[in-house]
Protein backbone atom coordinates (compact mmCIF):
# COMPACT_ATOMS: atom_id res chain seq x y z
CA UNK A 1 0.00 0.00 0.00
CA UNK A 2 1.23 3.50 -0.79
CA UNK A 3 2.77 5.10 2.26
CA UNK A 4 3.79 8.51 0.87
CA UNK A 5 0.92 10.25 -0.94
CA UNK A 6 1.61 13.31 -3.04
CA UNK A 7 1.78 16.37 -0.81
CA UNK A 8 -0.55 18.56 -2.83
CA UNK A 9 -3.05 20.02 -0.41
CA UNK A 10 -1.03 22.03 2.10
CA UNK A 11 -3.85 21.66 4.60
CA UNK A 12 -6.80 21.69 2.21
CA UNK A 13 -7.51 18.00 1.72
CA UNK A 14 -8.88 16.44 4.86
CA UNK A 15 -11.01 19.34 5.95
CA UNK A 16 -12.56 19.82 2.54
CA UNK A 17 -13.34 16.19 1.88
CA UNK A 18 -14.74 15.48 5.32
CA UNK A 19 -16.84 18.62 5.32
CA UNK A 20 -18.38 17.65 2.01
CA UNK A 21 -19.47 14.24 3.21
CA UNK A 22 -23.00 14.02 4.57
CA UNK A 23 -23.00 14.35 8.32
CA UNK A 24 -23.12 10.94 9.92
CA UNK A 25 -23.19 9.40 6.44
CA UNK A 26 -22.09 5.93 5.51
CA UNK A 27 -18.57 5.84 4.16
CA UNK A 28 -16.57 3.25 2.28
CA UNK A 29 -13.06 2.39 3.40
CA UNK A 30 -10.84 1.67 0.42
CA UNK A 31 -7.33 0.29 0.78
CA UNK A 32 -4.97 0.22 -2.18
CA UNK A 33 -2.26 -2.45 -2.36
CA UNK A 34 0.50 -2.03 -4.92
CA UNK A 35 1.94 -5.12 -6.62
CA UNK A 36 5.51 -3.86 -6.16
CA UNK A 37 5.26 -3.15 -2.42
CA UNK A 38 5.97 -5.84 0.20
CA UNK A 39 4.26 -7.95 1.48
CA UNK A 40 2.82 -8.36 -2.03
CA UNK A 41 4.41 -11.26 -3.91
CA UNK A 42 4.93 -11.26 -7.68
CA UNK A 43 5.87 -14.56 -9.29
CA UNK A 44 7.69 -12.75 -12.09
CA UNK A 45 9.29 -9.31 -12.31
CA UNK A 46 8.38 -5.82 -11.17
CA UNK A 47 8.52 -3.66 -14.29
CA UNK A 48 7.89 -0.01 -15.13
CA UNK A 49 8.22 0.10 -18.91
CA UNK A 50 4.52 0.66 -19.70
CA UNK A 51 3.25 4.06 -18.54
CA UNK A 52 0.01 4.74 -16.70
CA UNK A 53 0.52 2.48 -13.69
CA UNK A 54 0.18 3.70 -10.12
CA UNK A 55 2.98 3.48 -7.59
CA UNK A 56 6.47 2.67 -8.85
CA UNK A 57 5.80 -0.41 -11.00
CA UNK A 58 3.60 -3.38 -11.77
CA UNK A 59 3.77 -7.18 -11.65
CA UNK A 60 4.74 -8.78 -14.95
CA UNK A 61 4.05 -12.38 -14.05
CA UNK A 62 5.87 -15.38 -15.50
CA UNK A 63 3.94 -16.88 -18.40
CA UNK A 64 2.94 -20.13 -16.76
CA UNK A 65 -0.02 -21.78 -15.06
CA UNK A 66 -0.03 -20.83 -11.38
CA UNK A 67 2.55 -18.02 -11.70
CA UNK A 68 0.60 -15.81 -9.32
CA UNK A 69 0.55 -12.40 -7.72
CA UNK A 70 -0.56 -12.26 -4.09
CA UNK A 71 -1.60 -9.39 -1.84
CA UNK A 72 -2.05 -9.07 1.91
CA UNK A 73 -5.16 -6.94 2.49
CA UNK A 74 -7.07 -5.81 5.54
CA UNK A 75 -10.78 -5.53 6.35
CA UNK A 76 -12.29 -3.83 9.42
CA UNK A 77 -14.95 -6.53 9.84
CA UNK A 78 -16.02 -9.86 8.42
CA UNK A 79 -18.46 -9.77 5.53
CA UNK A 80 -18.30 -8.98 1.84
CA UNK A 81 -16.12 -6.46 0.08
CA UNK A 82 -15.45 -5.20 -3.41
CA UNK A 83 -12.10 -6.27 -4.83
CA UNK A 84 -10.91 -4.12 -7.73
CA UNK A 85 -8.02 -5.37 -9.86
CA UNK A 86 -6.23 -2.88 -12.11
CA UNK A 87 -4.54 -4.60 -15.03
CA UNK A 88 -3.42 -4.32 -18.64
CA UNK A 89 -3.41 -7.06 -21.26
CA UNK A 90 -1.76 -5.99 -24.48
CA UNK A 91 -2.31 -9.31 -26.21
CA UNK A 92 -5.26 -10.13 -28.44
CA UNK A 93 -6.75 -12.77 -26.14
CA UNK A 94 -8.02 -12.88 -22.57
CA UNK A 95 -5.80 -14.20 -19.80
CA UNK A 96 -8.00 -16.12 -17.32
CA UNK A 97 -7.08 -16.47 -13.68
CA UNK A 98 -8.57 -17.83 -10.47
CA UNK A 99 -9.30 -15.21 -7.81
CA UNK A 100 -8.46 -16.85 -4.50
CA UNK A 101 -9.27 -15.24 -1.12
CA UNK A 102 -7.89 -16.81 2.04
CA UNK A 103 -7.24 -20.06 0.18
CA UNK A 104 -10.74 -20.33 -1.33
CA UNK A 105 -11.39 -19.76 -5.02
CA UNK A 106 -14.12 -17.14 -5.24
CA UNK A 107 -13.99 -16.57 -9.02
CA UNK A 108 -12.73 -19.48 -11.10
CA UNK A 109 -11.13 -18.66 -14.43
CA UNK A 110 -12.06 -14.98 -14.29
CA UNK A 111 -11.45 -13.40 -17.69
CA UNK A 112 -8.92 -10.57 -17.80
CA UNK A 113 -9.73 -9.49 -21.31
CA UNK A 114 -7.51 -7.79 -23.85
CA UNK A 115 -7.04 -4.05 -23.30
CA UNK A 116 -5.54 -3.61 -26.76
CA UNK A 117 -2.22 -2.20 -25.62
CA UNK A 118 -0.03 -2.64 -22.54
CA UNK A 119 -0.68 0.97 -21.52
CA UNK A 120 -4.44 0.39 -21.65
CA UNK A 121 -4.90 -0.01 -17.90
CA UNK A 122 -8.42 -0.90 -16.83
CA UNK A 123 -10.16 -2.37 -13.78
CA UNK A 124 -12.29 -5.41 -13.01
CA UNK A 125 -14.31 -5.80 -9.81
CA UNK A 126 -15.32 -8.85 -7.79
CA UNK A 127 -17.50 -9.25 -4.71
CA UNK A 128 -15.50 -11.34 -2.27
CA UNK A 129 -15.86 -12.65 1.30
CA UNK A 130 -13.39 -11.28 3.83
CA UNK A 131 -12.49 -11.98 7.43
CA UNK A 132 -11.96 -9.28 10.02
CA UNK A 133 -8.33 -8.22 9.93
CA UNK A 134 -5.73 -9.78 7.66
CA UNK A 135 -6.68 -11.51 4.39
CA UNK A 136 -4.79 -12.82 1.39
CA UNK A 137 -5.83 -12.28 -2.22
CA UNK A 138 -4.17 -14.33 -4.95
CA UNK A 139 -4.58 -14.12 -8.72
CA UNK A 140 -3.49 -17.43 -10.18
CA UNK A 141 -3.39 -17.87 -14.00
CA UNK A 142 -5.08 -20.94 -15.41
CA UNK A 143 -3.28 -21.03 -18.78
CA UNK A 144 0.33 -21.02 -19.91
CA UNK A 145 -0.08 -17.44 -21.11
CA UNK A 146 0.04 -16.35 -17.47
CA UNK A 147 -1.46 -13.20 -15.96
CA UNK A 148 -2.01 -9.79 -17.46
CA UNK A 149 0.25 -7.10 -16.04
CA UNK A 150 -1.18 -6.32 -12.60
CA UNK A 151 -0.84 -2.79 -11.23
CA UNK A 152 -2.63 -2.97 -7.89
CA UNK A 153 -5.74 -4.17 -6.11
CA UNK A 154 -8.17 -2.17 -4.00
CA UNK A 155 -10.40 -3.57 -1.28
CA UNK A 156 -13.48 -1.48 -0.43
CA UNK A 157 -15.44 -2.23 2.71
CA UNK A 158 -18.10 -0.42 4.74
CA UNK A 159 -16.71 1.19 7.85
CA UNK A 160 -19.48 3.42 9.21
CA UNK A 161 -23.19 3.28 10.00
CA UNK A 162 -25.94 4.45 7.66
CA UNK A 163 -26.63 8.18 7.49
CA UNK A 164 -29.03 9.79 9.92
CA UNK A 165 -31.06 11.44 7.13
CA UNK A 166 -33.59 9.76 4.83
CA UNK A 167 -32.24 6.95 2.66
CA UNK A 168 -33.44 5.34 -0.55
CA UNK A 169 -31.84 2.27 -2.11
CA UNK A 170 -31.49 1.67 -5.82
CA UNK A 171 -30.44 -1.48 -7.63
CA UNK A 172 -30.20 -2.63 -11.27
CA UNK A 173 -33.31 -4.74 -10.63
CA UNK A 174 -35.22 -1.96 -8.86
CA UNK A 175 -38.64 -0.74 -9.98
CA UNK A 176 -40.00 2.81 -10.07
CA UNK A 177 -42.90 2.05 -7.75
CA UNK A 178 -40.85 0.23 -5.12
CA UNK A 179 -40.49 1.64 -1.63
CA UNK A 180 -36.75 2.16 -1.90
CA UNK A 181 -35.86 0.02 1.10
CA UNK A 182 -32.91 -2.37 0.93
CA UNK A 183 -35.33 -5.24 0.40
CA UNK A 184 -37.47 -3.33 -2.11
CA UNK A 185 -35.07 -1.11 -4.12
CA UNK A 186 -36.26 1.50 -6.57
CA UNK A 187 -34.78 3.10 -9.69
CA UNK A 188 -32.39 6.04 -9.74
CA UNK A 189 -34.79 8.23 -11.71
CA UNK A 190 -37.55 7.60 -9.19
CA UNK A 191 -35.31 8.07 -6.15
CA UNK A 192 -34.08 11.44 -7.46
CA UNK A 193 -37.64 12.80 -7.44
CA UNK A 194 -38.38 11.45 -3.94
CA UNK A 195 -35.31 12.08 -1.81
CA UNK A 196 -35.49 15.01 0.61
CA UNK A 197 -32.84 17.52 1.65
CA UNK A 198 -30.12 15.82 3.65
CA UNK A 199 -31.09 12.44 2.20
CA UNK A 200 -28.93 9.81 0.51
CA UNK A 201 -29.63 7.65 -2.52
CA UNK A 202 -27.50 4.51 -2.35
CA UNK A 203 -26.79 2.70 -5.61
CA UNK A 204 -26.00 -0.96 -5.19
CA UNK A 205 -23.21 -2.38 -7.28
CA UNK A 206 -23.76 -3.65 -10.82
CA UNK A 207 -24.56 -2.31 -14.26
CA UNK A 208 -27.57 -0.06 -14.79
CA UNK A 209 -28.66 -0.09 -18.43
CA UNK A 210 -30.22 3.21 -19.48
CA UNK A 211 -31.55 4.37 -22.83
CA UNK A 212 -32.56 7.85 -21.64
CA UNK A 213 -30.87 10.66 -19.69
CA UNK A 214 -31.16 10.45 -15.90
CA UNK A 215 -31.97 14.01 -14.84
CA UNK A 216 -31.91 15.97 -11.60
CA UNK A 217 -34.34 18.69 -12.63
CA UNK A 218 -33.90 22.42 -11.93
CA UNK A 219 -35.46 23.24 -8.57
CA UNK A 220 -34.73 19.80 -7.12
CA UNK A 221 -32.25 21.20 -4.62
CA UNK A 222 -30.60 20.39 -1.37
CA UNK A 223 -29.30 23.12 0.89
CA UNK A 224 -25.87 24.26 2.01
CA UNK A 225 -26.44 22.48 5.34
CA UNK A 226 -28.26 19.44 3.93
CA UNK A 227 -27.10 18.30 0.54
CA UNK A 228 -28.88 15.61 -1.41
CA UNK A 229 -26.51 12.74 -2.11
CA UNK A 230 -26.23 10.09 -4.80
CA UNK A 231 -23.56 7.63 -3.71
CA UNK A 232 -22.25 4.17 -4.35
CA UNK A 233 -23.32 1.75 -1.64
CA UNK A 234 -20.28 1.17 0.60
CA UNK A 235 -17.96 -1.40 -0.91
CA UNK A 236 -19.78 -1.60 -4.26
CA UNK A 237 -19.37 -0.05 -7.72
CA UNK A 238 -22.46 1.06 -9.65
CA UNK A 239 -21.97 1.55 -13.39
CA UNK A 240 -24.49 3.68 -15.29
CA UNK A 241 -24.29 2.36 -18.85
CA UNK A 242 -25.90 4.30 -21.70
CA UNK A 243 -24.78 2.08 -24.57
CA UNK A 244 -28.34 2.00 -25.91
CA UNK A 245 -28.12 5.69 -26.80
CA UNK A 246 -27.27 6.98 -30.26
CA UNK A 247 -24.63 9.69 -30.53
CA UNK A 248 -26.53 12.96 -30.20
CA UNK A 249 -26.14 16.21 -28.28
CA UNK A 250 -29.46 15.49 -26.53
CA UNK A 251 -28.31 12.10 -25.21
CA UNK A 252 -26.41 12.88 -22.04
CA UNK A 253 -25.95 10.34 -19.28
CA UNK A 254 -26.51 11.99 -15.88
CA UNK A 255 -27.72 15.61 -16.06
CA UNK A 256 -27.28 17.39 -12.73
CA UNK A 257 -29.39 20.55 -13.02
CA UNK A 258 -30.22 20.95 -9.34
CA UNK A 259 -28.20 22.71 -6.64
CA UNK A 260 -26.46 21.42 -3.51
CA UNK A 261 -26.07 17.78 -4.58
CA UNK A 262 -23.17 15.44 -3.84
CA UNK A 263 -22.52 12.71 -6.41
CA UNK A 264 -19.95 10.15 -5.32
CA UNK A 265 -18.47 6.86 -6.45
CA UNK A 266 -20.31 6.32 -9.76
CA UNK A 267 -18.99 5.11 -13.09
CA UNK A 268 -20.84 6.71 -16.03
CA UNK A 269 -20.09 5.31 -19.46
CA UNK A 270 -21.06 5.18 -23.14
CA UNK A 271 -23.56 8.05 -23.16
CA UNK A 272 -24.51 9.51 -26.55
CA UNK A 273 -23.08 12.86 -25.44
CA UNK A 274 -21.59 13.90 -22.06
CA UNK A 275 -21.32 11.26 -19.36
CA UNK A 276 -22.11 13.77 -16.59
CA UNK A 277 -23.40 17.27 -17.39
CA UNK A 278 -23.60 19.82 -14.58
CA UNK A 279 -26.00 22.71 -15.14
CA UNK A 280 -26.66 23.40 -11.46
CA UNK A 281 -24.57 25.15 -8.82
CA UNK A 282 -22.94 24.41 -5.46
CA UNK A 283 -22.57 20.71 -6.25
CA UNK A 284 -19.79 18.26 -5.43
CA UNK A 285 -18.78 15.55 -7.89
CA UNK A 286 -16.43 13.15 -6.14
CA UNK A 287 -14.64 9.93 -7.12
CA UNK A 288 -16.58 9.48 -10.33
CA UNK A 289 -15.24 7.86 -13.49
CA UNK A 290 -16.59 9.04 -16.85
CA UNK A 291 -15.43 6.85 -19.72
CA UNK A 292 -16.21 5.85 -23.30
CA UNK A 293 -18.80 8.61 -23.70
CA UNK A 294 -19.39 10.21 -27.08
CA UNK A 295 -18.62 13.74 -26.00
CA UNK A 296 -16.76 15.21 -23.02
CA UNK A 297 -16.84 12.91 -20.01
CA UNK A 298 -17.77 15.56 -17.41
CA UNK A 299 -18.88 18.98 -18.58
CA UNK A 300 -20.29 22.15 -17.00
CA UNK A 301 -22.61 24.49 -18.88
CA UNK A 302 -25.94 26.28 -18.77
CA UNK A 303 -29.11 24.20 -18.59
CA UNK A 304 -30.74 25.65 -21.72
CA UNK A 305 -30.09 28.30 -24.35
CA UNK A 306 -32.40 30.69 -22.50
CA UNK A 307 -30.75 30.28 -19.09
CA UNK A 308 -29.68 33.75 -17.89
CA UNK A 309 -26.03 34.32 -17.09
CA UNK A 310 -26.78 34.70 -13.39
CA UNK A 311 -27.91 31.06 -13.39
CA UNK A 312 -24.92 29.58 -15.20
CA UNK A 313 -23.36 26.75 -13.13
CA UNK A 314 -21.20 28.15 -10.34
CA UNK A 315 -19.22 27.04 -7.27
CA UNK A 316 -19.12 23.37 -8.29
CA UNK A 317 -16.26 21.21 -7.00
CA UNK A 318 -15.02 18.25 -9.04
CA UNK A 319 -12.69 16.31 -6.76
CA UNK A 320 -10.78 13.02 -7.14
CA UNK A 321 -12.47 12.36 -10.48
CA UNK A 322 -11.18 10.48 -13.53
CA UNK A 323 -12.25 10.84 -17.16
CA UNK A 324 -10.82 8.75 -20.00
CA UNK A 325 -11.41 7.33 -23.46
CA UNK A 326 -14.21 9.71 -24.35
CA UNK A 327 -14.52 10.03 -28.13
CA UNK A 328 -17.05 11.46 -30.56
CA UNK A 329 -17.39 10.23 -34.14
CA UNK A 330 -15.83 13.41 -35.55
CA UNK A 331 -12.89 13.12 -33.16
CA UNK A 332 -12.86 16.80 -32.24
CA UNK A 333 -15.22 17.41 -29.31
CA UNK A 334 -14.79 14.77 -26.64
CA UNK A 335 -12.54 15.99 -23.82
CA UNK A 336 -11.94 14.58 -20.38
CA UNK A 337 -13.35 17.62 -18.57
CA UNK A 338 -14.86 20.88 -19.79
CA UNK A 339 -16.05 24.10 -18.20
CA UNK A 340 -16.68 26.12 -21.31
CA UNK A 341 -18.96 28.51 -23.16
CA UNK A 342 -21.46 29.18 -20.34
CA UNK A 343 -20.08 28.70 -16.82
CA UNK A 344 -20.26 30.99 -13.80
CA UNK A 345 -17.83 31.78 -10.97
CA UNK A 346 -16.08 29.54 -8.48
CA UNK A 347 -15.86 26.22 -10.36
CA UNK A 348 -12.90 24.10 -9.23
CA UNK A 349 -11.26 20.89 -10.46
CA UNK A 350 -9.07 19.34 -7.76
CA UNK A 351 -7.19 16.01 -7.86
CA UNK A 352 -8.70 15.31 -11.28
CA UNK A 353 -7.18 13.01 -13.92
CA UNK A 354 -7.94 13.23 -17.65
CA UNK A 355 -6.26 10.74 -19.96
CA UNK A 356 -6.63 9.07 -23.34
CA UNK A 357 -9.46 11.32 -24.53
CA UNK A 358 -9.74 11.91 -28.28
CA UNK A 359 -9.61 15.73 -28.00
CA UNK A 360 -8.25 17.58 -24.94
CA UNK A 361 -7.80 16.72 -21.28
CA UNK A 362 -9.43 20.00 -20.19
CA UNK A 363 -11.33 22.44 -22.40
CA UNK A 364 -12.15 25.96 -21.16
CA UNK A 365 -13.24 27.25 -24.57
CA UNK A 366 -15.09 30.53 -25.12
CA UNK A 367 -16.68 32.12 -28.19
CA UNK A 368 -18.14 35.54 -29.04
CA UNK A 369 -21.76 34.33 -29.17
CA UNK A 370 -21.80 33.70 -25.42
CA UNK A 371 -18.82 35.83 -24.36
CA UNK A 372 -16.45 35.28 -21.48
CA UNK A 373 -16.96 32.61 -18.85
CA UNK A 374 -15.90 33.17 -15.26
CA UNK A 375 -12.44 32.01 -14.18
CA UNK A 376 -12.00 28.30 -13.51
CA UNK A 377 -9.45 26.85 -11.07
CA UNK A 378 -7.60 23.63 -11.91
CA UNK A 379 -5.30 22.43 -9.17
CA UNK A 380 -3.34 19.34 -8.20
CA UNK A 381 -4.45 17.54 -11.35
CA UNK A 382 -3.04 15.43 -14.18
CA UNK A 383 -3.57 15.27 -17.96
CA UNK A 384 -1.74 12.64 -19.98
CA UNK A 385 -1.83 11.03 -23.43
CA UNK A 386 -4.87 13.01 -24.55
CA UNK A 387 -5.39 12.81 -28.28
CA UNK A 388 -4.82 9.05 -28.27
CA UNK A 389 -7.33 6.54 -26.91
CA UNK A 390 -6.18 3.58 -24.83
CA UNK A 391 -6.49 1.35 -27.90
CA UNK A 392 -4.16 3.61 -29.88
CA UNK A 393 -6.83 5.42 -31.92
CA UNK A 394 -5.89 8.96 -33.01
CA UNK A 395 -8.13 11.36 -34.92
CA UNK A 396 -6.50 14.18 -36.89
CA UNK A 397 -9.45 16.45 -36.04
CA UNK A 398 -8.64 16.39 -32.33
CA UNK A 399 -6.77 19.29 -30.70
CA UNK A 400 -4.99 16.85 -28.36
CA UNK A 401 -3.88 19.31 -25.64
CA UNK A 402 -3.52 18.59 -21.96
CA UNK A 403 -5.04 21.86 -20.72
CA UNK A 404 -6.78 24.12 -23.28
CA UNK A 405 -7.40 27.36 -21.44
CA UNK A 406 -9.39 29.61 -23.75
CA UNK A 407 -10.81 30.35 -27.15
CA UNK A 408 -11.36 33.01 -29.80
CA UNK A 409 -9.32 35.78 -28.16
CA UNK A 410 -11.64 36.27 -25.18
CA UNK A 411 -9.84 37.17 -21.93
CA UNK A 412 -10.54 35.01 -18.86
CA UNK A 413 -8.21 34.93 -15.85
CA UNK A 414 -8.12 31.20 -15.10
CA UNK A 415 -5.95 29.69 -12.35
CA UNK A 416 -3.87 26.57 -13.03
CA UNK A 417 -1.55 25.38 -10.31
CA UNK A 418 0.36 22.33 -9.17
CA UNK A 419 -0.84 20.29 -12.15
CA UNK A 420 0.93 17.99 -14.59
CA UNK A 421 0.77 17.57 -18.37
CA UNK A 422 2.49 14.46 -19.74
CA UNK A 423 2.84 13.28 -23.33
CA UNK A 424 -0.30 14.85 -24.71
CA UNK A 425 -0.63 14.88 -28.49
CA UNK A 426 -0.13 18.62 -28.96
CA UNK A 427 0.59 21.16 -26.19
CA UNK A 428 0.74 20.54 -22.47
CA UNK A 429 -0.65 23.89 -21.30
CA UNK A 430 -2.01 26.27 -23.95
CA UNK A 431 -3.65 29.68 -23.70
CA UNK A 432 -5.55 28.84 -26.92
CA UNK A 433 -5.78 32.56 -27.80
CA UNK A 434 -6.87 33.63 -24.30
CA UNK A 435 -5.28 37.10 -23.83
CA UNK A 436 -6.17 37.33 -20.15
CA UNK A 437 -4.06 37.38 -17.01
CA UNK A 438 -3.94 33.72 -16.06
CA UNK A 439 -2.20 32.57 -12.89
CA UNK A 440 0.00 29.62 -13.89
CA UNK A 441 2.11 28.30 -11.04
CA UNK A 442 4.09 25.26 -9.91
CA UNK A 443 3.02 23.11 -12.84
CA UNK A 444 5.05 20.34 -14.51
CA UNK A 445 4.92 19.65 -18.24
CA UNK A 446 6.84 16.76 -19.78
CA UNK A 447 7.29 15.47 -23.33
CA UNK A 448 4.18 16.92 -24.92
CA UNK A 449 4.26 16.59 -28.72
CA UNK A 450 4.63 20.28 -29.57
CA UNK A 451 5.14 22.78 -26.75
CA UNK A 452 5.00 22.01 -23.07
CA UNK A 453 3.76 25.58 -22.49
CA UNK A 454 2.43 27.97 -25.13
CA UNK A 455 1.12 31.40 -24.13
CA UNK A 456 1.52 33.89 -26.98
CA UNK A 457 -0.55 36.83 -25.73
CA UNK A 458 -1.88 38.39 -22.56
CA UNK A 459 -0.45 39.35 -19.19
CA UNK A 460 -0.38 35.95 -17.48
CA UNK A 461 1.81 35.42 -14.42
CA UNK A 462 4.10 32.37 -14.35
CA UNK A 463 5.77 31.18 -11.17
CA UNK A 464 7.62 27.98 -10.32
CA UNK A 465 6.72 26.05 -13.47
CA UNK A 466 8.88 23.24 -14.85
CA UNK A 467 9.24 22.03 -18.45
CA UNK A 468 11.16 18.86 -19.32
CA UNK A 469 12.00 16.70 -22.32
CA UNK A 470 13.51 13.23 -22.40
CA UNK A 471 15.37 14.02 -25.63
CA UNK A 472 17.09 17.12 -26.95
CA UNK A 473 14.45 17.62 -29.64
CA UNK A 474 11.23 19.56 -29.20
CA UNK A 475 9.70 22.98 -29.66
CA UNK A 476 10.78 25.71 -27.26
CA UNK A 477 8.17 26.96 -24.82
CA UNK A 478 6.53 30.28 -25.73
CA UNK A 479 5.67 32.69 -22.92
CA UNK A 480 4.22 36.19 -23.08
CA UNK A 481 3.59 37.76 -19.69
CA UNK A 482 5.32 37.90 -16.32
CA UNK A 483 7.74 34.96 -16.05
CA UNK A 484 10.52 35.21 -13.48
CA UNK A 485 13.54 33.05 -12.66
CA UNK A 486 11.49 30.66 -10.51
CA UNK A 487 10.36 28.95 -13.72
CA UNK A 488 12.43 26.39 -15.61
CA UNK A 489 11.02 26.51 -19.14
CA UNK A 490 12.48 24.46 -21.98
CA UNK A 491 14.57 26.17 -24.64
CA UNK A 492 16.79 23.31 -25.77
CA UNK A 493 17.93 22.00 -22.37
CA UNK A 494 16.36 20.76 -19.16
CA UNK A 495 16.56 22.63 -15.91
CA UNK A 496 17.80 21.07 -12.67
CA UNK A 497 14.33 20.04 -11.50
CA UNK A 498 13.84 17.76 -14.51
CA UNK A 499 16.07 15.12 -12.91
CA UNK A 500 13.11 14.31 -10.67
CA UNK A 501 10.61 14.15 -13.53
CA UNK A 502 12.05 11.43 -15.77
CA UNK A 503 10.90 7.85 -16.19
CA UNK A 504 7.51 6.23 -16.48
CA UNK A 505 4.45 8.04 -15.13
CA UNK A 506 2.48 6.48 -12.28
CA UNK A 507 -0.51 7.80 -10.37
CA UNK A 508 -3.16 6.86 -7.83
CA UNK A 509 -5.70 8.41 -5.49
CA UNK A 510 -4.73 8.25 -1.83
CA UNK A 511 -7.30 7.16 0.76
CA UNK A 512 -8.16 10.81 1.52
CA UNK A 513 -8.76 11.53 -2.17
CA UNK A 514 -5.54 13.41 -2.89
CA UNK A 515 -3.61 12.61 -6.05
CA UNK A 516 -0.27 10.82 -5.86
CA UNK A 517 1.97 11.01 -8.95
CA UNK A 518 5.35 9.43 -9.57
CA UNK A 519 7.97 9.67 -12.30
CA UNK A 520 10.18 6.60 -12.45
CA UNK A 521 8.89 5.67 -9.01
CA UNK A 522 9.86 9.04 -7.48
CA UNK A 523 6.95 10.88 -5.83
CA UNK A 524 6.16 14.37 -7.06
CA UNK A 525 6.01 16.93 -4.28
CA UNK A 526 5.61 20.69 -4.16
TrEMBL record:
It is found in: Secreted. One of its GO terms (molecular function) is carbohydrate binding. Its main location: secreted. It holds the Pfam family Pel9A-like_beta_helix. GO terms for cellular component: extracellular region. Its cofactor is Ca(2+). Residues 1-28 form the signal peptide. Residues 31-156 form the CBM6 domain. Keywords: Calcium, Lyase, Metal-binding, Secreted, Signal. PANTHER family: PECTATE LYASE (EUROFUNG) (PTHR40088), PECTATE LYASE PEL9 (PTHR40088:SF1). Belongs to the polysaccharide lyase 9 family. This is Silent information regulator protein Sir2. It comes from Streptomyces filamentosus.
Amino acid sequence: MRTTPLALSLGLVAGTIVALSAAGGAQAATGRYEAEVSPAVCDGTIDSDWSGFSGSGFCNGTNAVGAHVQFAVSAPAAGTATLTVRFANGTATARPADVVVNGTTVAAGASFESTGVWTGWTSKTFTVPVAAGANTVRLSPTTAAGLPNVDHVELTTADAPAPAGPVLYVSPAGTAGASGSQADPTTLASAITRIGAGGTIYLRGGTYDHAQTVTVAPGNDGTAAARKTIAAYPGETPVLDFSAMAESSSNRGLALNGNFWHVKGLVVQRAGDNGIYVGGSDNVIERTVTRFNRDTGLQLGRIASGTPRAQWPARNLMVSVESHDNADAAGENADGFAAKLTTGPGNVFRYAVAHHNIDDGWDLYTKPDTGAIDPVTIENSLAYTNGTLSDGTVNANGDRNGYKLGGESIAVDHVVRRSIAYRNGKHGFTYNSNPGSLKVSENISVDNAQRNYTFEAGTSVFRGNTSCRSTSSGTNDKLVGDADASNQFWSGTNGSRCANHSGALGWSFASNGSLAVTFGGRPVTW
